[in-house]
Amino acid sequence: MRKQVPLERLLFLKQQLGFDAETQELLKSHGVILASHKEDFARYFEDFFRGMEETRPYLEVQEYPGQLQDIWKRWFEGIFTRDFDQAFVGWVWNSGMTHVRINLDHRFVNLGYCLARRFCIQVINSSIAPEERAEAMEAVEKTLDLCLLIETEAFLASTFQCDSEVIRGIAHQIRNPITVIGGSIMRLKRSKEITARAAHDTYNTILAESRRMEKMVQDVSSYNEVFHSQSAWSPVLLQEMLQEVLDECRQRYPVVGLDLQTGYAPMARRVLGNPEEYRLMFRHLLANAFEAVDPEKPVISVQTSLDPGTAMYVLVEIFNTGKLSGTYEMETLLTPFFSTRAMGTGLGLPIARVVAQKVKGNIMLYPVAKGGVVCLASLPRGDLV
Q1: What is the CATH number of domain 7-163?
Q2: Which CATH superfamily hosts domain 231-385?
Q3: How many Å apart are CA 269 and CA 281, to the nearest integer?
Q4: Which whole number is the average pLDDT over 291-303?
C-alpha cells in the first residue's frame, strides 16, 4: 500500500504557509546554530517519550541501540540545513507514511512537533542575538508548521487509501457469494422438477456462501479494529500462547497423519505486545498452515529462536508442506482480499502482518527449495523491558 508523493499539492501548501525564498535564507542564516544542538535535541526527545507509558515500548524495542536517536538527529539537522525542495518535501512525506505503517498514533506525532518547537525556542533564546530572535523564530515556526502539515497529509492520505481499499475489497468479495446464492435460488425457482439431491446440493451451496460472507464480516471487523486501535504492550509468554493456539487449530482443522513438530528456544520465551492481538495473529498464521498443508505429506513445524541479526527480536518460524496453487509473489499473499482458496477471505495474513507491524515487527513468507512454505514472524523480545 504505497502512495505516490503528491508534490504539486505539497508545494502548494508550502506556498500557502508563506515559506518562500526569504524563509529559506533565514534558515540558512540561523539553521547552523539550531542544527548544532541535534545531540541535545535527540536526548531531550527520548527522555520525554521514555517517560510516557504509551510510547516507552517503542524505545525499548529498537533494533539497534540509539537507532531512534540517530533518526531524530538527522531529522533535526535536516530541516534546518537542507533546502526545502522537492526531494526534501518527499522525504518528509515518506516519514509520515512510515508513521502510518508502524501504526504510530498521530497524536504523538503532533506532540513531537510541539516538543521540537519548545526546544527550538530554548535554543534561540540562549544562542541567538536578541535582535535576530524574532526572525529566527518566524523561520522555525514556518518550517515546523510545514513539516507537520506534510506529515498530516500523509497520514490522511494513507488512512483514506486503506479504508477505501477495504471498502472496495468488501464490495468485490461480497458480490461473489451473493451472485452464487442468487443464481442457486433462481435455478430452484425455474426448475420444473426438483430432485431431493439437487435441492440438497443447492441448499449446501447457499449455506456455504452464507458462512463465507459471515467469515468475511468477522475478518473485516478484526482487520479494521487492529489497524485503527491503539493498544498497551506487555510481556507475553510465547510458548504457552503458541501451544494454546496450536491445540485450537488441531481441533478445528483436523489433519489425518499430521506430523506436528515444535521447538521453543528458552531465550525466546517472551515477546512484547498486546496478548489478544498476538492470539489473533497466531490463529490466522497457524490456521493458514493447517489449511495449506499437503494432505499426502502433512508436516507442520513451529520453531522459536532469537533473531541472529539483533538480540532485541524473537523469530517465530511456521513451516508447512503445502504447495501454492499457482505462481505468486510472496508479498501478494499478504495483500488484503487475495486468497488462493475458493472460500478464503484473503484477510488472515494481512491481519497478522498489521499486528506484527504495530510492535515494529514484521511477517514474511518464502518458499522452501525442498517443498513447502515458511512464514516468519519477527517480534520484539518481552524479557528485556
Answers
A1: 1.10.490.10
A2: Histidine kinase-like ATPase, C-terminal domain (3.30.565.10)
A3: 17
A4: 93
pLDDT confidence bin for 270, thresholds 50/70/90? very high
pTM (2 decimals)? 0.58
pLDDT at 1: 46
Domain ranges of the chain: 7-163, 231-385
Q: Is pLDDT at 342 greater than 80 in this prediction?
A: no
- Would you say residue 63 has pLDDT above 60? yes
